[in-house]
Design brief:
A two-stranded parallel sheet has the order 1-2. The protein is elongated. Helices cover 61% and strands 4% of the residues. It is mainly α. It folds into two domains: 39 residues, no CATH class; 72 residues, no CATH class. α2 links the parallel β1 and β2.
Length: 114
C-alpha cells in the first residue's frame, strides 16, 4: 500500500469521525448542551510476529516517512499535537544515519515546548 493510499484512508477516516462528531454536537446543541470534540492524531504498528518488526522496507516507507513528515506538519501550527507510542521505532528513527540533524533539532524543540 502506497503512502498516498494510506493518507487517503486516513483522511477518509478522519472525515467520517468529524462527521459523526458534528452530528453529535448538533444533537447536543438542540438540547442546549455544550459539546467539545478533541481529535488527537496517532499511529501505531502491530508486532505480528513475522520477522523483524517492522521490516527495513516497512521502516523506510512508513515509520521514517511518518515521523519526518509530521515534523513539517506539526511545525506549521503550534496547536497541533500528535501521539507516538512506539519508542523503539522513535529510537530507530533518531539513530538512523539518514535522519537529518535539523529534523532532530525540530523534534527536540517540539518536545520541549509541548
Amino acid at each position: 500500500m502506497t503512502f498516498a493510499t494510506k493518507r487517503q484512508i486516513f483522511v477518509s477516516s478522519l472525515l467520517t469521525a468529524a462527521s459523526q462528531a458534528f452530528q453529535a454536537a448538533a444533537a447536543a446543541q438542540d438540547n442546549q448542551e455544550k459539546f467539545v470534540v478533541h481529535f488527537l492524531p496517532h499511529t501505531h504498528f502491530e508486532n505480528t510476529g513475522f520477522g523483524e518488526w517492522p521490516s527495513e522496507v516497512n521502516y523506510r516507507q512508513n515509520v521514517k516517512d511518518i515521523l519526518t513528515s509530521l515534523l513539517s506538519t506539526l511545525s506549521e501550527d503550534v496547536h497541533r499535537k500528535f501521539n507516538w507510542s512506539e519508542l523503539q521505532m522513535l529510537e530507530r528513527w533518531w539513530n538512523d544515519p539518514s535522519t537529518e540533524p535539523v529534523d532532530k533539532e525540530i523534534f527536540m524543540k517540539m518536545v520541549k515546548t509541548g
